Amino acid sequence: MIEPIGSNLNMLSLDSNKINTSNRNPSDDFGDLVRDNLQQVNNLEKNADNLTTQFALGEIDDIHQVTIATEKARMALNMTLGVQNRLVQAYEEVMRMQI
C-alpha cells in the first residue's frame, strides 16, 4: 500500500527550514510542493558546504555547528531520495495496471 507523500514530507521539517503545510490550500499544485521542498534541501546543502568551508578556513571554530548542518543536509537528502523512490514505485505500479 502506498502511503500519502505529504506524511513523509512532514518528517523533513527541521528547525530553521520547517515545511509549512498549514497554509497550503489543498488545491495547490503538487509540482510547487515538490519544488519548494527540493529548494529547501538545496539550501540545507549549500549552508552545510558554506559552514564546512568556513571551518576549513578557520573562520569559525564551532565544529558542532558544522556537524549539525552537515547532518541536517544528509538527512534531508536521504528523505528526498526516499520520496523519489516512492514516486518511482508508484509510477511503476500505475503503469502495470491493466485497463
UniProtKB/TrEMBL annotation:
Region Disordered, as annotated, extends over 1-29
Question: What are the leading ranks of the lineage?
Answer: Bacteria, Bacillati, Bacillota, Clostridia, Halanaerobiales
Name the Pfam families on file. FliE
Compartment(s) of residence: Bacterial flagellum basal body
Q: Which GO terms describe its cellular component?
A: bacterial-type flagellum basal body
Protein name per the record: Flagellar hook-basal body complex protein FliE
**In which broad location class does this protein mainly occur, judging by the first location in its UniProt entry?**
other
Domain of life, per UniProt, equals Bacteria
Gene Ontology BP term (one): bacterial-type flagellum-dependent cell motility
Family as reported in the entry's similarity comment:
Belongs to the FliE family.
What are the Polar residues biased-composition ranges? 7-25
Question: What Gene Ontology molecular-function terms does this entry list?
Answer: cytoskeletal motor activity; structural molecule activity
